[in-house]
Amino acid sequence: MALVEVRSVTKRFHKGDETITPLDGVSLDIDEGEFISLMGASGTGKSTLLNLIASIDQPDNGTITIDGTQITGLSRTRLAAWRAGGIGYIFQTHNLVPVLTAWENVELPLLLLPMSAAERRTRIDIALRAVDLSDRANHYPRQMSGGQEQRVGIARAIVAHPRVVVADEPTGDLDPQTSTQILHLLQRINRELNVTMLMVTHDPEAAAIADRQFRLDHGKLVQVSVPEPAGTGSGEI
Amino acid sequence: MLRFVPYILKTLWRHRSRTALTVSGSAVALFVFCFVAAIQQGMDDLQERQSAKGTLIAFQANKFCPATSHLPQDYDSQIARLNGVKDVVPVQVFTNNCRASLDVIVFYGVPADRIQSARDFQLVTGSWSEFESHQDSAVVGRSVATRRGIKVGDKFSIGDISVNIAGIFRSSDPGEENYIYSHLDFLQRTRGANLVGTVTQLEVLLEPGADPDALCREIDDTFRGGPVETDTRAKGAFQAKSLGDLVQLINMARYLGYACVGLVLALVATTTIMSVEDRIREHAVLQTLGFSGPRVFGIVMTECMILSFAGGCLGVGTALLVLKVSSLSVAAEAVAVAFSPSLGVALSGLTVSVFAGAIAGIAPAIHAARTEIVPALRHT
Fold first, then answer.
1. Domain residues of chain B, as ranges?
2. B95-153 tens-digit pLDDT
3. Would an 8 Å CB–CB cutoff place A114 in contact with chain B?
4. Is B281 part of the contact surface with chain A (CB cutoff 8 Å)?
5. Quick check: B3 contacting A, CB < 8 Å?
6. In this predicted structure, what is the pLDDT of residue A232?
7. How far apart are CA A11 and CA B38, in angstroms?
8. Fewer Cβ atoms within 10 A, N terminus or C terminus of chain A?
9. Is the CB of residue B2 less than 8 Å away from at least one CB of chain A?
10. E strands of chain B, at which residues?
11. Which residue of chain B comes nearest to A54, CA vs CA?
12. What pTM did the predictor assign?
């Protein structure tokens, strides 16, 4: 059984009299520990699919089940509680809280979970070490470079040990060299921590680091890379 | 919610100018609220205290300012014979201003040997024997002494009256601390006038259980048709009548207090709405991380209440300090109402600030909690 099961998901937007359907009966299975990349031109609905899996948006039709929980049927409050421990979200523009230090930003998701202060400290230290930012723990976002901010964002996404991490154009705002570092970091986290990862990108080179690559085209999902024989994932068109 | 307080405080600190303006605005409003509440408290206190004491005041009928009331002093012995009367204290009153004013000097001339039994004064400095042994000496209420910078040993003059200060007293009745007590006969003879044999009013102390209304009628009936008729009332009612329009003004001032509450509400609500609009994306990020709508609601509400409460603390604290240091009172026709900076006033001010903050925060907090995450994340 796949960790993430997307079944016949449709999402429509209404713009005046016009109805746009970026996702039209999309299905996708992602196995535990897989790294999936999702490509497509602007406006094709790749971020929409990512947001649906991250449970910050709701489909018009279809179901999404993650780790046995059908998230499409949950209330807003229960979804929030589920997100706190189940999903890590890496934003394109980092979206760190500007008034908090790197350490405090990483701490935010943990404040929602039942754990002791000591456990919290340990997890934050480990997460910051994983993104090689221990020495910047007390720096504010404005005191860091874009790449460092994104690494804090990654630490924040993994600190609660979520089953799935989604990344929306994580290198979109970064220079090529920093982008490469961030992509390697994501790959390392996926492999070493066995975190299931779904990344949206428009950069084919970035997409290539994933186990499987998909493309969204006219509301349909198309698999563009064949999994390696040892791979466990499967995609559906 | 406590674990999010550092985040809330840092958010407020980051927008220092906005926070400072809101807090200072709330502080000014709460400062005025406390002033109004303090004078209202002084008024209520005066009336409650006097009605509880069982004291009547006999004044010359159809006279208003103390300078115009001249009762024969020997009325005291006739009143003292009535059933239910414990004692009668003749009082000569002198005031430098019969109209309403913030700095009225009121002299009460009473028999020197009866002042301690008629009042609950404790001397802060000075001595009773010094007061009793010198006819031109006086004891001064703490508030007047503070306001006028009077010390024991000073000579205090106002108009033609000049007294030596023998003591400064405190009283459980804050209104009393706005008066100066001198010898009765000194005040009767002063200013070249010879008022010996007449007094401004007679203070009638009742036995426990005596009916004040019946005694008022009995006293007035006793002197009806005589050379000088009396108008006798319970001391609280007498003082309320003396204060006259001032009572209505003080009662009307409570609307100023309500307006202040409205001001705090509008100010904090405006600031919070602006803050929520500015941080719509930040709240969406929090919700993406797993903060529920109710939790975001709680964060915005807490932020709002902290702003309002901080303004409340500043305004209430400053008001109490100013009232304490200035010993303000307002008086009319020789009756003073003290601004009473009590714990009750402080607590009501702080409660108002918290409630105003809570009410002001509801709409912005709901707005923040109901934010649609995806559109808000695109918000720039």
1. 2-46+246-378, 63-228
2. 877 676 677 788 899 998 888 888 888 999 998 989 988 888 999 998 889 888 899 99
3. no
4. yes
5. yes
6. 44
7. 63
8. N
9. no
10. 55-60, 71-72, 85-95, 106-110, 122-126, 137-141, 155-158, 161-170, 179-183, 198-199, 201-206, 230-234, 329-332, 335-338
11. B288
12. 0.77
ipTM of the complex: 0.90
Inter-chain CB proximity A95 and B377 less than 8 Å: yes
CA B299 to chain centre: 37
CB contact under 8 A, A83 and B13: no
Instruction: Answer yes or no: do B289 and A89 touch at CB < 8 A.
Output: yes
pLDDT digits (tens, 9 = 90+) for B202-239: 999 988 888 888 999 999 999 888 888 999 988 877 87
The rounded average pLDDT for each run of 10 residues, N- to C-terminus, in chain A (237 residues) is 90 86 89 91 86 92 92 89 91 88 94 92 92 91 92 92 91 84 89 91 88 88 67 39
Q: Calculate what percentage of chain B has a pLDDT beyond 90.
A: 31
pLDDT tens across B314-365, in order? 999 999 999 888 877 777 777 777 787 788 889 999 999 999 999 999 999 9
- The owner of tokens 């969204």 is A216
**Which of B16, B285, B371, B379 to probe the A interface (max A CBs under 10 A)?**
B285
Q: Do A99 and B11 touch (CB under 8 A)?
A: yes
Beta carbons of A35 and A199 less than 8 angstroms apart: yes
Q: What's the mean pLDDT in B67-87?
A: 89
CATH superfamily of the A33-57+72-225 domain: P-loop containing nucleotide triphosphate hydrolases (3.40.50.300)
Encoded tokens for B174? 């804050």
CB within 8 Å: B289 and A57: no
- Look at residue B199 and give its three-state secondary structure: strand
Q: Which residue of B has its CA nearest to A53?
A: B288
- What residues pair up with A6 in beta bridges, in sequence order? A28, A64
